[in-house]
Structure formats: C-alpha cells, structure tokens
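Re-running the complex after MR caught last week's input typo. The corrected sequence lines follow. Everything else is unchanged.
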Amino acid sequence: VHRLTHPAQAHAALDLADGRGIVARGLGRSYGDAAQNAGGQVLLTTGMRGVTQFDPATGRITAEAGISIDELTRRTLPAGWFVPVTAGTRWITLGGAIASDIHGKNHHRDGSFGAHVVSLELQTPTGERLTLTPDGTPDRFWATAGGMGLTGIIVEATIQMVPVETSWMRVDTERARDLEDVLDRMARGDDGYRYSVAWIDLLAHGGALGRSILTRGDHATRAEVPEGAAYMAQGAPGTRLAAPRLVPPALLNRHSVGAFNELWYRRAPRSESGKARPLESFFYPLDGVRGWNRLYGPRGLVQYQLVVPLGQEACLRRIVARLRDADAPACLGVLKRLGGRRGLMSFPLAGWTLAVDFPARSPDLGRLLDDVDELVAGVGGRVYLAKDARLRPELLESMYPGLSRWREIRAALDPERSMRSDLARRMSL
Amino acid sequence: VKDALGSVQSLLVLGGSSEIALATARALAAGRTRTVILAARRPDELAAAADALVQAGARNVERVEFDAGDLQEHEQFVDRVFDRDEDIDAVLVAFAVLGDQASMEKDARAARSLIETNFVGAVSVILPIVERLRAQGHGSLIVLSSVAAERPRRSNFVYGASKAGLDAFAQGLGDALAGTGVDVMVVRPGFVRTKLTAGLEPAPLSTTPDSVAEAIVDGLRRRAHTVWVPPALRWVMTIVRHLPRPLFRRLDF
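Corrected-run output:
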C-alpha cells in the first residue's frame, strides 16, 4: 500500500506495479473487491484531496480525486452548490464515484455521476497524463467513467455542481401496499421529482409482497425551510448512533428483520407531503449510524444490486418472490427507477434497480444469488460491479454488452495490464 | 480469486487419485471452480477422473506428475505448476498411504517410508506452495488430516503419528499465516469408506468421500480452520482424547 498526496506522484507510483499490478483505492466503501489487489500494489488516494479551483458563480469545481463527497459538499454548499449525483454514503471519493460511475436517487432525471464530469485527468500506466472529456475523447472518457479503475489512475476531475438555495429537502412520503402499487406510483410520478427512492419490504407475505415506502423530493427553496432554521446548516452533523462492537452473529434473521420491517412500514406516514428534512437525513440515513455494518455479525454482509430493463416488471416480480421465499433474509431492500445508460461498463440502464443486503453467513446465499443472476441476465439486465463480490464470470459478457469495446480501449490505455484488481482477476476483465 | 462466499475458481490437488480429493474437486467444479490441476504419481490413470470433473463443470483439467516421496523434486514441481497466468485459489493436500500396521511395527524401513510420504513429503511440498500463495496474496490450503491424528489407536498408530505430525504442522502454519491472505484449513474425517480402507471394519461414525467433500466446500464458505467429518466427531473426540489409556485400549474400534 502506498499513499498518494499529490497528483504529480501518480506517474512514479505506477512504476510500482509488478506482475501483480496496481489499483487505486479511495475510502474503501465499495462492497466488493474492486479496490483490492491481492499480492499487488494498492495506491491510497485519500491523501490527495485538494480543491484546485472552485468558481462560486458557475458551480464548477476542480478537485483531486481523493477528496470525499463529504468534503466536496462542505466546500461548495455554503456557496449554494450541491454534488450533482450522490451515493447513499458521503464517505466515498471523487475518483471512486467516477470509476464506478455511481448513480443516485436522481438518476431518472440527471443520469450518472459521469454525466456531470466536465473533464478528468487520467494518469495511464504507459506514462501519459491524459485530459479526458465526454465530447473531446468520448471513448476513453466513457471507458474510464464506470471502468472500475482499470484504465489508469484518475488524479483530478472537474465537475459541474447543481445550484441549491438551502441545505434542506422538501420531501413527499407515501406508502405503497405492494410491488405493483409502488412500480405504478414511480412510473407515474417520478418525473415530477428530482429525487425518488423506495424502501421495499422483501419479507412481507401474501398480498403485501413488495410493500414499500416511497420517498421523493427536491431541494427546498428558502420559503420552504422551517421557521427559525438556517437556510444553510453549518457543517455536517456528527453521528448520533453507533452499532455496538459485539453483536450476536444471528441478530439479523428472518424474524427480527420481518418484525422491524412491519414496524418501519407502519411508522411511515400513509401519505405526507412537503415535509422539510435536512440534506443528510434524506441522502445519507446510514451515515448516521456509525459502524452499521457490524449489525450483520462477524461475517459481514453481501450486498447485491441488479437492474432489469423497463417492461420487465414480471421478471422483477419473480425476483422479489424468490427473495422472499429464500432462507437468506433480505434485510434492506431499496428500489429505484433508473434513466438511460452511458458508460461502456456503467451499471445503470433504463429500468428498475433493486439493492439488497444479506448477512454473508446465510448458507444458501450463493445459490439464491446465482438463480437471481440468471433471471436478470435472461431479460437483458445486469448486476452492479461496484458492489459485486460473487457473480459468475460467464454472465459478464451478456450483462455488459459494452465489454468487448471497453477491452479494446483499455488495451490501448494499458497494454501491459498494469491496472489490476481482485475484481478484474475474478471476472477476467 | 476466491469470492465473498468462499467459492474458488482454480484448484490444485496433490494426491489426485484420492477419492476424497476427487469428490471435493467435483463438488467445487459444480460451483465456480473452472480450473483443476490433478497432481498424482501416475497421472495417466486419471483420464476418467478428469472427464468426470469436466462433466461436473470444470473447463480446464490438467494432470501432472507428482511423487510425494521424491523430496528433491518438490520445489521444481511447485514452480512448474504455479508459473501460469491464473492464480491458484486453493490447494488440497490429500495424498497419503495407510500402510500395513503389523508389518510396519517390525519393519522400520516400511514405517519410515510411510512417515516420509505422509508427513515429510507433505511438509516438503507445502512450504514452497505457501511461498507462492503468499506472493499472490491469497489462497486456501486445505490439509487432509484424520481423526487418527487426535488420538492414536493401537491398530494404526504409525499412520496416526504421520497425520498427527501433519495436523500439528498445518495448525501452526495457519497461525503463522494469519493476516497474509493465505489461510489453512485442517480437515479431520473419521473412518472414510474408500479403496484405501476397503476390507477394514468401519469404525463408528464412518463417512463417505462425498460427505467429506461437502464439508470442505462448506468449510471454505465459512472460512473454517478446522473441519470434522461428520461434525459430531468434534465432540466425540473431545471426550475420547481424555479417556484414560487402560480404558481406551479396551475400546473395540
């Protein structure tokens, strides 16, 4: 492991790559093995987090790749700018957001993170420092955005932030009684909101299969901020809760999660509109619980995220039913509608995405997810590589039709295959 | 690379003619394992076994010559096998001879030969393998021990001694490798009904190669460092190992 503290060091650092290769690693929040490189070199980018340029008039910011979304937001929010796309945690880096071409609750409106990158600086293993832009160098740009860090080291990027009046969200919440209901509400209403996401109960039985709490909103205007509150909250809030250090290995099981889901669903308002909520509680609820992953026990969790194209709702229904009937408890389900696809290896495509957490200890989890993979691949869907830790490599080509084109571009950028990760090895990327 | 659920993509088997090893390789091939390298003294005799592995789901089955007793050759053997594009995710050390207890008690040469194969040979080949696994930064070493390693019996104590040595070596090695990405799993089956034990009276709690295979696959998933087959043996042997010798001697098994 080596640390980068300045973009200029990336060139020399790439020489460290030996037969086992090298990969950049940011804050390490990927669920899978994308930023691991067994036996090889890992370059930590988190020491390289300066802001090179920020124009408060246009909202354009140039920053080094190791900066976190948290820090980025803190620098720009007081001037009225928010990150264009954010994941469910703010503890990820700019470089990681591009390499995974992340999506957020606004994908149906605004696309993936890569769509907001004006330009990026890529240090390639051949020693070149390239400036890539979506218009000037679309092939190499879209092989790098979503390229899982395998085209080189992203050292710096310029992104266009979005203007906000306040650090508050105006949120509508509604309950959906089953899967059909939530899909219908999202299909009809999502376009009226910038952000939309549904928490879905994957353990509910019978007619309640797929019951959900749909949360949608937009940035609040000044007029919508609660009386007496500041338009722009200063600083990010601390974490209020922390998971205990020692947790019974089987704390999260079918029964405890089922009971929690019941409470959670009942607690949610049947329908509530225009509620003001702070940004971070809307975007990053889990960041409020330090070490939440410990709840899954010593073996940890496996997260699985799939997308099936629009029109394949029947397949989604089968998947939800399969998850409910499995022994492995589907703990946290998140459903969302995605817009179109962009990067060659980017995850999003126009369709329905479902993300699910499972305790890794579940004995039949491997078979369950293998079955779901087949269903997903069968309708032209795919699973998210940034979260994957167990996909059957044979399915990759059919899930990612851009793979062969991506390989060609990668071969030009990194002919020696110096950029390597466990994900790349496992998937023969 | 081993995935988050303990599936391995490539497997090296030392003792490729062992029924337990082949059952394990088939069980893994039914999962994610696509490359299997069978190393045995007479690799030509393993054509049918290789076919069965392809049937089970393997894509690439190689057969290579390996003689546990030929200690001088071990390092070169390991270099040859590991010099490939693909990592080797798991190595199963399964070779062993049972020997004839009665004659070994009188014939030091026969006893020594068994120890040399089962224990010295294993140590001699495991060490260079571990070097390669460390270099690739990951890997699972699966060592086939025996319940006989836990408490030697009158009827097979030379074999038991060789396995006890190997078992102790593997346990210590596993501790030494903690944190390197390489892990060691010690498998202690009870009496397994195979060609090795044909003609012997099965002991209580006897098992089959397929059950051992299943336990190994499950052990990889759980990242276990010790696997008993059947699992109940763990508790039985906890008691048995503390039985007074005069009583243990009289037990008929």
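None of the earlier attempt is carried over here. DSSP finds nine helices and seven strands in chain B. The CA atoms of residues 123 and 169 of chain B lie 8 Å apart.
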